[in-house]
Structures are given as structure tokens and as C-alpha cells.
Amino acid sequence: MLGSPGRAPPLLLVGLLLGLPVLLPARPPGGGRRPRYEPTWGSLDARPLPAWFDEAKFGVFIHWGVFSVPSFGSEWFWWYWQKEKRQPYVEFMEANYPPGFSYEDFGPLFTAEFFDPNQWADILKASGAKYVVLTSKHHEGFTLWGSKYSWNWNAVDVGPRRDLVAELETSVRNRTDLHFGLYHSLFEWFNPLFLEDAANAFMTRKFPTSKSLPELYEIVTKYQPEIIWSDGNGNAPDTYWNSTGFLAWLYNDSPVRDTVVTNDRWGVGSICTHGGFYTCSDRYNPGHLLPHKWENCMTIDSGSWGYRRNAQLSDYLTIQELVKQLVETVSCGGNLLMNIGPTHDGRIAVVFEERLRQMGAWLEVNGEAIYGTKPWRAQNDTATPGVWYTFSPKEGKVNAIFLDWPVSGTLVLGEPQAKLGETQVKLVGYEELLKWVALGEKGIIVALPQLTPKQLPCQWGWTLQLTDIS
């Protein structure tokens, strides 16, 4: 049976049951036999993470859905209003909508009339991101594509009457070099099939076999995303979701089997334990090196993943704060997935666009210290706060990224051990080599150039490239 616990459904059976194209196994690039992964965590966790993901370092998350219509409080609007009955949400509805107005009534108001996927793709490219992850379906159950498993609760049958996933995927792939990824919520708050399974302590599996799993096979086969960002386990174990069965198919037989990466949200107990890269929690930024590849998913709007009309300017992280997040994350071996929330009519609000373009401008100067780097032996400096290190293996250079320009004009670096006559120090974006003095085991002190604000290579964080140091 499709989705039975602990078994990967045969590819032919998947195709026949879901009406999808049947893909026969192919040999990996360069010939040889492709490894086969069993539907067990032991086997799946042993799969090497495709190299592109670690090299990318920076992606953009997009939370978009029916929750973008009320655009009040949070993308969890439906839950907070109907289930928890939080006072601000109840009062908002009473003040602005007629009695009897349901959440489903927001569906036709999700219009996306200003959605221009080419414009979105151009903004994403300008951000310096190397991948994008779009919410194909959040916990509300509304799919941004015309899923045959969503009845009429999708963007093709209601609201925009457009396949929003397909449009963005096409534009991203035609206009940028970004990897295209999709977020998918396993559970749905108020789906009666899920609620019935939950009432049965997940001993029945009507919802995953008829809704959630078929959707996953559908989006992988139809859009070939290189990231499957799973979320929302609904307090159910991975056996209920048949996560290992799906992942075995994804890694063995899917059209993206060689390049796809996945996260760690596949059922109770899997987060920060199983899967491709770890997320551990929302806005996870440990500040130290982790032994497993991880990602810091966080929001420009500190209070919400979805667009909020009631957000204040102070709620939005500044570009200085965002650069700090990126630098800290990459220094400790992680990727940064920075979230924006478009409006119900399909606009990327100007404050989000500004932050994205500012990040792109910073990466235009400092990208060598971010893309394709590895963690150095020290992640941050012991002598001067706000200095973070990365290592560029191709050039053999250590990058010291400092977030505050010292008033004294000199920067003390306690970690690098210089070699007289060999070590060179360069400020990225400035032509001349910098002078420095060795402090023995206490590091080096670097004389920064005397520059006016307009002469600085960038405005929000600077990179020193150090060669021949230990």
C-alpha cells in the first residue's frame, strides 16, 4: 500500500497510483552504480549531502499563502483566531469582517494580481542568494499549485487561478542560477482526515496516504525542486508520515535524486537528528561550530514569517543585523535562509526588497569570504568581539570579517599566527596591502587605511584576507 510505514513504494506503483510520469533508474554522472538507500534512518542519514548546498551559504525563504490576506499578527492567523481564540485576532475579525466570515472566505481574496515572477526572480538574483525556498503549502492546507489532492483549496481553483509554483520556478530557472526549492507542511491544522487520525493516536493513516504523501510525490515530479523543506509534523511520528519511505524514493528514483537536499523535520524526534541538513529550531544560530551541516532559517520581520500589515519599522532587522546573522552562521558551518513575506496581491514589499538588494550589494564585495568557504580552526576572535572567520580552500586564505570599524584605526586579531616575510593582509575592495605587526602568540595588529565613509568598500562589515598564516 502506498505510504505504508517503513517501506519505500516502488517507483512504478507510485506512478500508477498518482498518475505521475514513471522515471526509470539511471546511472549517476560519470558511470558506475548509484548507491541504493534503504527506507531506514541509518541508511538515509549516510547519504552524502550534495556539495552545492554547503557551497551556496545563502538562500531566501518565501512565506506566501492565504494567511497573506488578513496579513495580521502571524502566518498562524487561522490557528490563533479559531483554535486558541487569541484576543487580538478575535477583535481584529470582529472589527473588520462580518459575522460568520470564515477563514475559507479569505481564499478568493488571495488574488496575486501584482505577482510578476520575473520581477521576483530578478530581486532574488540581486540579493546574492544561491537558492530560494517557496511555501508550496503551509499548515492551512492551501496549495500554491493546482494539486489534484487539494480539492478546490488551491491557487488554480481559488483566488489567483494561477499555478504560482510553476510560474516562479520557470522564472527562477530562466533568469537566475539559483537552486529552486519548495517548503511543504506535512500536516494541516483543520483537515478532517488529519484530525481523525490524530484522534486515533495516529494508528490510522488516512491523511498521509490520501493527501500529504501524494502531494510530495506530485511536487517533486512536477517541479523537480532541489530542496524539499519539510515542516509541521502535527505531533505525529515519522512512521505515520512514512518519511523514510518517501526519502528513499527521493534519493533513489526521483528526478532530483542526485542533487536534492532535505531538512530534518520529518516527524516527532527527527529534528536535529535525521535528514539531510539540520534546522534544530526556527532562528537557530548556535554561535559555535556544529559537526553536522545546518541551516539558520530566520525572518527579516522579527515577529512573523508571513507579511504583516501591522508590523512596525522597528520589527524589521536592519542590514547590519542581517549581515551579522549571515557572517556568524557561515563561520560556524551553517547556511542562512532569510525569509520574506509577500503581500496577498503578489508584491515583495519595498522594505524586503531593500534588505535583499542591500545584502546583494554586500555580497558583491565580500562574497569570496562567504560562498564556497569552510569553517576555520577558530570561528570568532578571542581578542576583539565581532570578528568572525571563514576559510577559502581554493585560495588558501583566511577571511577575518569584522562588523565594527575600530575608531583607533587598528584591529587586533588574537587568533591568526603570522609569519614574518610571508603573511599578507588585504582589505577586500581596497587595492593596497595593509601593514601589520606580529604579537607573537597573541596574534597580530592590523593598521586599517584611513578612509572616508564614501571610500569604504562597503558600509556594514568588512573582510580582511590573510595569506600564509597559521
Short description:
By secondary structure, the protein is an alpha/beta fold. The protein has 13 helices and 14 strands.
CATH superfamily of the largest domain: Glycosidases
Major pleated sheet: 7 strands, parallel
What overall form do the CA principal axes indicate?
globular
Helix content: 25-40%
Q: What would you say the CATH architecture of the largest domain is?
A: Alpha-Beta Barrel
Average pLDDT, to the nearest integer? 93
Give me the secondary-structure category: alpha/beta
In CATH, the topology of the largest domain is named: TIM Barrel
Strand arrangement, largest sheet?
A: 5-4-3-2-1-7-6
Number of helices: 13
What percentage of amino acids are in beta strands?
15-25%
Number of domain units: 2
Distance between the termini: 58 Å
CATH class of the largest domain: Alpha Beta
Could you explain the architecture of this structure?
- The chain has helices spanning 11-18, 41-44, 51-56, 77-83, 87-96, 117-126, 164-175, 192-199, 206-223, 238-241, 243-252, 319-331, 350-366, and strands at residues 58-62, 131-137, 179-185, 227-231, 261-262, 294-299, 334-340, 387-392, 397-402, 410-413, 424-427, 436-438, 444-447, 462-467.
- By secondary structure, the protein is an alpha/beta fold.
- The strands form three sheets. A seven-stranded parallel beta sheet has the order 5-4-3-2-1-7-6. A four-stranded antiparallel beta sheet has the order 8-9-14-11. The chain has a three-stranded antiparallel beta sheet with strand order 10-13-12, with no helix packed on it.
- The longest helix is centred in the middle third of the chain and has 18 residues, at 206-223.
- Its EC number is 3.2.1.51.
- Alpha-L-fucosidase is responsible for hydrolyzing the alpha-1,6-linked fucose joined to the reducing-end N-acetylglucosamine of the carbohydrate moieties of glycoproteins.
- GO terms for molecular function: alpha-L-fucosidase activity.
